[in-house]
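Researcher: Here's the sequence for the chain we discussed earlier.
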Amino acid sequence: MTDDTNDGFKPTRRSVLRLGAMSALGIGIGIPAVSGSVAATMCPKTPGYWANHAEYSDPEDNWAVLGEGPNSEYTLRDVTKTHDEWREFLVAPTKGDKANIMAKHYLAIILNLRNRPGNDPGCTSGGATIQYGYYAGYTIEEVKNMAGTWLSNSSWGSNGNGKQTSWYAGGVDGEKLKDTLDAFNNNPGSLGLDCPCNDR
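Model: Thanks. This is the structure I predict for it:
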């Protein structure tokens, strides 16, 4: 006969140890993970996520890494906007402007990288390199920097030469850079990077 109060479950030493370990990490029992722990690490997010999640007050998370409050200004490759204006930019249609498409992915990767822990081996530090795709052998930081240079050479911002209709700027194919940023923002594992997180 079973005990109806626990559906016949009899705790074993192993299950008690697992529950204790999960409790210590704040997993599965409704306790938020401690900031700075692996369990509290934010997963990379897409431009669409950043457009729709404005958490300005928490210096450990989200937009606060670019300055606190919705009226804080941030300059991205010679273009300065408030957080709210950047969010509006992320939501606005690109209308085929390659510079705007790149800038959306570039802003997302800046937010993603700044929300990662400083010591992030396998993902963004310790010489972790991309394993798959066009930029295999490069770090994600190097790809981000190349995308920033591409933006500076495009019609983005102060260059203001109108709509950027080509993916080529400064002799570089920006589409491959954009695709790599997009892959990181969606799933770093698709690039062979190990970026542990718990909020997916």
